[in-house]
Amino acid sequence: MVHHNTSSRTQTCRGAGLIEVMVAVIVFSVGLIGILRMQLAAMRNAESAFASNHAALLAYAMFDVLRADRAGAAGDRYDIPKTCSTTSGKSGLAGSALNDWLQSLKATLGNHDGVCGEVDCTGADCLVRVYWDDSRATEGSSAASIEVRSRL
Fold first, then answer.
1. What is the 3-state secondary structure (H, E, C) of the chain?
2. 61: which residues sit within 8 A by CB, 6+ positions away?
3. Is residue 8 exposed (0-12), middle (13-18) or buried (19+ Cβ within 10 Å)?
4. 57: pLDDT confidence band, cut at 50, 70 and 90?
5. Is the pTM of this model over 0.90?
6. CA distances (Å), 139 to each of 92, 108, 129, in order?
7. Which tens digits make up the pLDDT trace of 43-56?
8. Is the distance from CB of 116 to CB of 105 less than 8 angstroms?
């Protein structure tokens, strides 16, 4: 009769199972890290889309102000060069509207030096630019801007 040594076979199987579990945990961990990175990129890009949308809305809001005071807009009372401050340096109705608009830019797009506004009207043709920092987005720029032109 031949006797088989079963204890050595059992020890070999136990070690192989442990290695398989460790490999499975490593593969799962790498996959989970990949999913988390994709989720983070999606969140950053959603934030970028939010900022772009709000920049456009704020540019159109300035056009509503300009249309409400066409004479003031045609008289260059609302014209400001690229301004990153919350004050326009103008007085009266135009100065108050511009200050409110610049404060809205900062409140919505971030209160830092990269958030700026610009208004330039030549007669009834007006240009409004909004600048902001979009560097957190995938391939985003630290100097993002939107430009809207319209005839009042």
1. CCCCCHHHHHHHHHHHHHHHHHHHHHHHHHHHHHHHHHHHHHHHHHHHHHHHHHHHHHHHHHHHHHHHCHHHHHCCCCCEEEECCCCCCCCHHHHHHHHHHHHHHHHHHCCCCCCEEEEEEECCEEEEEEEECCCCCCCCCCCEEEEEEEEC
2. 101, 104
3. exposed
4. very high
5. no
6. 41, 22, 21
7. 888 888 888 999 99
8. yes
Match 């983070």 to its residue by tokens.
40
Residue 66 tokens read as 């300009």
What is the amino acid identity at position 123?
A: G
Structure tokens at 70: 């066409």
Residue 1 structure tokens:
């009769």
**Residue 33, class by beta-carbon neighbours within 10 Å (0-12 exposed, 13-18 middle, 19+ buried)?**
exposed
Residue appearing with tokens 């404060």: 103
